[in-house]
Amino acid sequence: MAMVCLTDFEKYAKEHLSKTAWDYFSAGADECCTRDDNLLAYKRICLRPRVLRDVSESDTRTTVQGTEFSFPVGISPSAYHCLAWHEGETATARAAEALSTCYITSTTSTCSVEEIVAAAPNGYRWFQMVVYQDRRLTEQIVRRVEALGYKALVLTVDMPYLGKRHNNIRNQFKLPPHLQFKNFNGLQKQATVDPKTYITSDPSTTWKEVHWLQSITSLPIIIKGILTKEDAVLAVEHGVQGIIVSNHGGRQLDGTLATIDALTEIVDAVKGRIEVYLDGGIRTGSDVLKALALGAKCVFIGRPVVWGLVYKGQEGVREVLQILKDEFRLAMTLSGCRNVAEINRNLIQFSKL
């Protein structure tokens, strides 16, 4: 079967994953309203294309934190890639390297950061993390990824507790015994530790911990999980280098804004002082175009990467990224834009329905 669009990969993954694994990756919190609205929100946004603009040549390249990407789509952090494909995160990393874009490695990856770097030595990577109650453990991880050449830390701030994901509870989901949180091997006995120890942050974490992180690393800090202008302003005031507008794929607090709906107020609050990115709900190249028109510097995708892994490992993820790149180029030129610098809010009209 020819894989034409990202929903083709979704259908394939649902047919080939076990029910428990599919439920894990597709899960949203509570009634899944936010998970679903992340997608539906894009359908409420209309494009206002310009014509007769000479789009015989086009350029999808952009820069993020001073580094050139081949197109403005990166890979969000997500856990347990070995559930989807035996090579797991190493396959994901190689695909990102092949497309010259960013891969944000999850703390709870099923391949170690060392394995990931070895698999894609020329790849551009950020590292997703939380602040643990054990600050020494947090610092150890930070120093480890810094030494391995990771280019930024992505601090997840929306997980003081784990969201209620109904099917995961019904399935009593847990990582199969042959898989591990490899970044923690040797640090604690795997069998005796509640997985939530590694997944959620210290609930007492505040903005003070941002300053603490800045005191132990020279890496840029990107805050992931901001949905309001108030927190965006605080992020700027605390000297972070970027924001990922994110609701955790709708897996944490149900009933929040779709990320594309939250984007504009955050971009306006930041006023260009730091870069703003977005994840959640990206399924087509026109979705990417809409996010950039509303002020995102770059977007990140999560579940579609897992679907690509299920389909064909590294090659499947590469295909997912290539389809998005091709669709983005087409949407951009059909809208009259020759490069990302020409994309702006004049392209956007919100549906009155």
Alpha carbon gyration radius = 19 Å
Query: Uncertain runs with pLDDT below 50, 5 residues or more?
Result: 189-193
Number of helical regions: 13
Strand order of the largest sheet: 4-11-10-9-8-7-6-5
Share in β-strands: 5-15%
Q: Structural class given helices, strands, pairing?
A: alpha/beta
What percentage of residues falls in helices of 4 or more residues?
25-40%
Tell me the number of strands.
Answer: 12
> What is the CA-CA span between the terminal residues?
36 Å
Q: What does the main sheet amount to?
A: 8 strands, parallel
Written as H for each helix and E for each strand, in order along the chain, the element string is: HHHEEEEHEHEHEHHHEHEHEHEHE
Mean pLDDT score, rounded?
95
Shape: globular
Could you name the key traits of this structure?
about 350 residues; alpha/beta; 8-stranded parallel sheet; two-stranded antiparallel ribbon; about 15% strand
Helix-strand layout with pairing:
Layout: H1 6-16, H2 19-26, H3 33-43, E1 45-47, E2 62-64, E3 67-69, E4 73-75, H4 89-98, E5 102-105, H5 113-119, E6 124-129, H6 135-147, E7 153-156, H7 166-170, H8 196-199, H9 208-216, E8 221-226, H10 229-237, E9 242-245, H11 259-270, E10 275-279, H12 285-293, E11 298-301, H13 303-334, E12 348-350
Parallel strand pairs: 4-11, 5-6, 6-7, 7-8, 8-9, 9-10, 10-11
Antiparallel strand pairs: 1-12, 2-3
Helix pairs in contact: 1-13, 4-5, 4-13, 10-11, 12-13
